[in-house]
Amino acid sequence: MAGKFISLEGGEGAGKTTLIRKLKTHLENQGLEVIITREPGGTPGAEDLRDILLTGQTDRWSPVTEALLMYAARVDHVERLIQPALARGAWVISDRFSDSTLAYQGAAGGVDIARIRQLHTVALEDFYPDLTFILDLDPLVGLRRTVERGEDPTRFEMHETDFHTRLRDAFLRIASDEPDRCVVLDASMAPDAVYEAALEIMADKLGANA
Ligand code: Z5A
């Protein structure tokens, strides 16, 4: 039996990592094998690409170059980790996937959306998550959460407020364009409330096992 593939998307500090940990525990309690992964990254080669994508000056790469590097990492991730796991029946939860390229490099970075969709087709044909949670949060609240965490900002966190507002709008647009796959969660709620809402949606969209 093939497993299910879930992605979590949203701006910085929206609570994806926090929610993923809770979903993993829940699904494991149902007796499922659960693989937690992230993008860019998830395999040794893709993690190498993550290093060069997330470090350095904000303008280190142009948005088109970023999109190509994201997809190079994504193909390695899908071929070597995600598809083999799904084939053996595991459930895979990824912290970000293809919608991040549409939002960050496309809507916020200025690369034509149709061009990114073509890139997806060339790289992965029609491979998409079974379910995508879009964690929606005021970008200033999300950025404050990441600052309070005390880590150095990534290249993306150093962008101006406008960039983060475009990101939020882009994720909401993706959700309204693809309502079968994407569900928006109000990420300003307490972590347990976000988790309860996600559980209900997962059971509804992916069935009894979830
Ligand atoms: N990127 C891209 O440009 N194009 C692409 O195609 C892909 C990615 C795939 C990856 O960064 C970067 O790559 C990303 C986009 C770009 N931009 N940035 N930066 P990352 O993986 O390092 O960062 P992130 O994905 O933005 O994750 P994050 O900053 O770690 O946030 P998070 O995982 O969504 O949040 P969290 O770690 O669960 O929570 C953040 C803090 O808030 C933490 O202290 C929590 O305890 C707290 N928290 C969590 N939930 C709540 C609630 N509900 N209330 C209050 N506080 C909370």
Summarize the model shown.
The chain is an alpha/beta fold. The chain contains 8 helices and 5 strands. Helix 1 packs across helix 8 (191-206) and helix 4 packs antiparallel against helix 5.
Question: Can you describe this structure?
Answer:
With 210 residues, this protein is of the alpha/beta class. It has a single domain, classed as 3-Layer(aba) Sandwich (Rossmann fold), CATH 3.40.50.300. It is 56% helix and 13% strand. It is built from eight helices and five strands, in the order βαβααβααβααβα. The chain has a five-stranded parallel sheet, sandwiched between helices. It is globular and about 45 Å long. The chain starts with a strand and ends with a helix. The model has no long low-confidence stretch (mean pLDDT 94). The structure holds ligand Z5A. Ligand Z5A binds next to α1, α4, α6 and α8.
Write the layout of secondary structure elements.
Elements: E1 5-10, H1 16-29, E2 34-38, H2 44-54, H3 63-87, E3 91-95, H4 98-108, H5 113-124, E4 131-136, H6 139-149, H7 161-177, E5 182-186, H8 191-206
Parallel strand pairs: 1-3, 1-4, 2-3, 4-5
Helix pairs in contact: 1-8, 2-3, 3-4, 3-5, 4-5, 4-7
The site of ligand Z5A has 29 residues, from helix 1, helix 4, helix 6 and helix 8.
